[in-house]
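Sat 14:20. Reprocessing the chain from the morning session after the first attempt stalled halfway. Input below, unchanged.
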Amino acid sequence: MKSETVMVTGAGGYIGSVLVDMLLERGNAVVAVDRFFFGEDILEPFIQNDQLQIIKKDIRDLGRSDFEGLSAVYDLAAFSNDPAGDLDPQLTWNVNHIGRHNVAIAAKEAGVPRYVMSSTCSIYGAAGDGISDETSPPNPVSVYAQSNHKAETDLLAMCDENFVAASLRNATVFGVSRRMRFDLVVNLMVLSAFEKGRIVITGGGKQWRPLVHVRDVCEGLIALTEAPPEAVNGKCFNIGFGNFQVRSIASIVRETIPFPINIDIAPDDPDRRNYRVSFDRLRDEVGFAASRSIEDGVREVYEALKYGDVENIPKCSTVSWYRHILEAQKLVASVELDGRLL
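Finished this time. Tokens:
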């Protein structure tokens, strides 16, 4: 897709801001769409780049004219994790399903030939002891996962020879981003180790989580837009580096950081997700596999904290920041029923 114009929705997010960076490096012209509730400074390093166009707009307000002339759309705008989605379930449905469906419809009407949606392995939810692949029945246990699954289902039903679309189901993401998040398991453990010299594991630590580096997610999204149409059209693909028990993740963090770390295990955890995922389809049918290890991510986040490239500020906790925004909107604009968040 080099030298062609593409759109990234959710461009100010944890994954989206990294994707914008990578696409610009590859020579693409990028239309970056976001409401920038986590700050417009996230894309500030690229403001002078004439290959970047920024649109500060809600995805539910996008129309056909916004997509004219695009070669691909990377659909990333959504409430970005399970707890955040539970803050306002109706708003989550409005954005993650209705908003994303609006983007897909407008893109298809405008003649955009390639479309890829960033989805989630949370769709598998409480999957038990087996390993889920793309043919496994979904079992989403949160509004976030349910709304993403509905958006994914609607998108893939729209595919035809002129609208080649696919969905990438992300494992739990880790690594450094300009819109840093410290509410993701690897990043949070590194932060806790860095600040407190200890890691607290809830729920006993035997829960399984699939994990993937943020740059691998971005490369996977790009791979889906560049793969032969017949290999990806109408399909969903899991992406991840591997499956790890939470207590194993803690041990990797402890062994990778160059000073002593204590690990404490607490029995209670309201998070019911426990699932392992196969990543074979993406490798076998598209030729792409995630390559960055947990150790790579731990070292990266630790170095960024040590040198002050990232810091633990309120915006780094998605749930807390969304709650702050929602409360502020209720005070200043109670007549807006959904606040046009995202």
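The two ends are 27 Å apart (CA to CA).
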